[in-house]
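Fold this sequence, please.
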Amino acid sequence: MKPTSAPVATPTDRMLELPSGRVRYWREGNGPPVLFVHGLGASVESWEPNVGVLAARFTACAVDLPGFGRSARGSLPFTLPGAVRFLCDFLDALGLERVHVAGNSMGGLLALKLALDCSARVDRLALLATAGVGREVTLALRLASLPLVDRLFSAGISIGQAEGAVRGVFADSSMLAPSFIRRWAELIAQPTAVSAFREAVVHGVNLLGQRRGIIQRHRLPEIAAPTLILWGDRDPVIPVAHAHIAARHIPNARLVILPGCGHCPQLERPEEVNRLLEQFLTA
């Protein structure tokens, strides 16, 4: 099913000072709060078709992680615990004690870790093609972790190269507006974003796949929050087999596989994902 092409108003950029530096975020609507966490190389824009729609029922918040989008790079190196602390600092600054959390890819891993280490802060958990379930990951990311690639990253990347990388995460990138792909590529090509991307890749991936230190499979049975797992059956980044592993190990989980969908279900199937999220978060 092809998603609607009806335009959705872009949420308003807001800025906030945190210990990591200046942070860009979106906050729309009223009601139970939902935190949206983007993936590697992405930004709040990866939730653009979702935040505005779900704001009709919820307080929908999305944040650029340090170095990504329009958030400051920060002085501390990227680590999984550090990224979770960042999310807690962000929630504290907004006065949000307990939230629903939705995360895509690396953002799913951060959402998982938040639910495991700060369970009192997470009401319900939505994982969209999450990292951190198994070692398997696309060859492109494994190669990007090699030391020799530092030279290429330090030279920067072009908008065209960034556009190619963006299109590569979708099953069918023609379903997204070229202007949206271009905006995402421009943010990825920023020197701070390239540096943050490289650091996050090295922290989480090596030539064999996702590093054992970030994989949370052994802790999945500890998740207390009701969990919705969404995955595209044509995900080119993280295999759909990880969806079934997560569903088997998380005690109160519902699994939905989206046919013909790639690594970012919220962008490729926005209407369906919004409907599933609304049903899940109001159950």
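Strands lie at 14-18, 21-28, 33-37, 59-63, 99-104, 122-128, 205-206, 209-210, 227-232, 253-258. The first strand starts at residue 14 and ends at 18.
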